Structures
1.
Amino acid sequence: MPSSKKSPGARGPWSDGETSALVDAWGPMYLRRNQNPLAVEEWRVVCSAVNAQRAAEGCRFNRSLVQCQKRIYTLKDQYQKELAKGRPTSGWRHFTQLRAFLADSPPGFATKTTAASGKKEKEEEVEEASPCFPETKPATDKNEEVVGCGCELVGSVRCCPAATVTKLAEVYERVEMKRLGVKEKEMEMEKNTISRCILGHKKMKVENPEETHGN
């Protein structure tokens, strides 16, 4: 019997590189929206940046759009907890990066919002909230290598700067589009072959009616 187990997908804790790529992609769009929830299309861009970073780290499976959303909410909650300690500095590794985007947030921003904004965010989460990529590691062309991209190593994790992550996301999308284009081309060729066979068979029936119907 075939196995009923689903593809494992991207499991386990987030690496520092993944988290940095997530915040770098999410933060500027969050500020452009005056610290309001991102649209689904913007979350897809964020997801693309995270999965480009995962590809650079050699990870096989991709993070889903919902996983990226949940990670941001967890980070914002932890940021508020660090602020509540009342210390001038924080030892939490992501505090400084998040402060650039959350420093002017209203009190209780991460944990409690007004009913109206909470409802709006919930609606935007649910709408089309599905994995933004097939859960496979993207193949790359010779001119589109994501490994050896000049990323810096932080501890044992390869961490790409924001500009590099954006570039990797663009490469990822181009490769996916190219892969889909090849599939469409193969389907078109198969259709043409079948059409030629049908036309050839019809032509034989017209030219040799005796052979078709028998003597």
Note: Residues 16-181 form one domain.
2.
Amino acid sequence: MTLRQKISDIPLYLQILIGMITGIIIGLIALQVDGGDTFIRHWIQPWGQIFIRLLQLIAIPLVFISLIKGMTGLKDISKFSRIGGKTIGTYICTTVVAILIGLAMGLLVQPGKLVNHEQVAHLQEQFIRAMYPVQLFAFTTSSSAATLPVTLKTVEQKLGISEEVSSFVLPVGVTINMDGTSCYQTIAILFIAQVLGIDLSFSQLCIIVAMTVLSSIGTPGIPGGSYVILAMVLTSVGIPVEGLALILGVDRPLDMLRTAVNVTGDAAVCSIIDR
């Protein structure tokens, strides 16, 4: 077996994770060497920028083509309105729920105490076990759009969801369903407001919920796609946009985590629609 074949046998998300860890190690070593930061800036950083640009380049065509494939793959065209309406309605509901959870956490409320976890434990375990490769891939790429092919393959092969449903529901979810991003934005807004000493009224909290729901539909599924949307929501409730500086320094790992939540939400809705 050649080296190339051995590498190809390693799951793609694991290859990316190894590359990320290797990059961190090389970066730490370079910081200890004279001229290392210059080497990274001029010889390493451009390749990372090229990777991000390629993700941005492929995001829209990938989602568009997948959506068209899903629509044309419907055996009964009369199902289009039913599945489409149910899909969009469920995605909006999950987004609102994510926002409310974010507000509750930001206001130091502990939700979910009344949930009977024993009844759904086996379902959760089965779902998470099947979804962990997708979550890791989303974590390492920070792109819901780039993760779409992996998500499609996983829900069809491991969760038993029909291709007719998954090929339509998941591309729509990449576009309009951003549960992790919505939850993050509400917590980030509350954090910035608290640091700046700004008290938010109930009406402002309602505006945050409404604006986050609407803005999550337009958040691009690419790394760092939520910055502009978050700035818009901050402005709508009278919080200085300069407050973004408080979180931008640590946003990269948070972006990776919320992308994993985004794709998990897409798969959860897909499972609901298929039932």
Note: Residues 33 and 39 are 10 Å apart (CA to CA).
3.
Amino acid sequence: MAALLPIPTPARLFHQYHHRHRQPQITIPTRHQHLCLHPLLLSSTHPILSVHLIIYKLSNPLEFEASLMSKEITLCTSIFLLTAAIYHLPAVHIPSSPRKELVQFLRKVTDLVPGLHAVDIDVPLTSLLKDDNKFEQVVLGREFHISLGRTVPIRVHQRDSVLTMLRQKLQFQKMYWIDFAKWVVFVNDDFTRSFLSMEVIAGGLAEITKQIDAVNEVYRLHNLPEFYKDPRPHISVAWASGDVGDFMTGVVEEEMKRFSLTGGSSRKHIFTCKFGGVKCRIGNRTYEICKFQEL
């Protein structure tokens, strides 16, 4: 195997380019200038974002095309760092039977909480209020996943080790039922978004917690950040900008009371699904970790 050369820092690459091209005219858009302070700062949720911004800021204004700088910085993103996310399979699908009630509940919440969007596809819920069928399909008809670990940056040489250990730790899994029993609101770590979610609080909680513990052990051995100390397995349906968790929680609790008083469902859970296994997504590839064994 060929030895890997040291990764040149952006400052060194820029110095090399400046030396070859005596008077480069670099214009960084004002809206991105604050990002120059820490150009290679990697976040846990978007570990490649800052590196791509470097390519944009340095190569686009100068039209480097296939210059040494753009090649080597791109190399950093594609070879040395990947992102890893671990979650349940198959994807959680909300059954058709509770969807009509869920649509009515979510419509009420949408009227009271400004700026709610469907998770992942980022469609404003207010744009769907005129058509219940479309609302149901867009908001509730998609796939959901239960996260078993943080989305983290890993180095390429760690990939095989992480996958091997995950398969060892999670190889003996049996089928169990998962009850989504409670509407809750979560706020992300940097307080930029608040999420309307359905939480697992009873059925399946013990099994999922054991799986999270196994993932944490693998992460710990690779010096990766572990999951939250008191995990609360859930799927998120909608989000709003900023830290509006207290306000959203008040709206949800009030609407749940009204919903039950007006003849809403008396079931102890929102819906139930079956555990099918675990997958791990690294970069743009998804790896099967385990599938359940029949009880």
Note: The longest strand covers residues 177-187.
4.
Amino acid sequence: MAMPVTTILSHQDELARKALSVTGDMNEAGLLVGRVMSRAFDRLEKGAAEDAITAALRRDLDALITKLRRKAN
């Protein structure tokens, strides 16, 4: 099983691609991913399991994208 930090970092590209496909802007996508990664590292410090961190990464990005879409409308 991978180290928790490696688990978080290994999902960064996946999250960046998804964020970029939604925003169409590299800077905005980077900000979204940075926020999600920061939250994941906070969870890591609290002792969350790797599976929970991975699910939270995707869930947090989806929530931020939904929030962004609501503001756009």
Note: The longest helix spans residues 50-72.
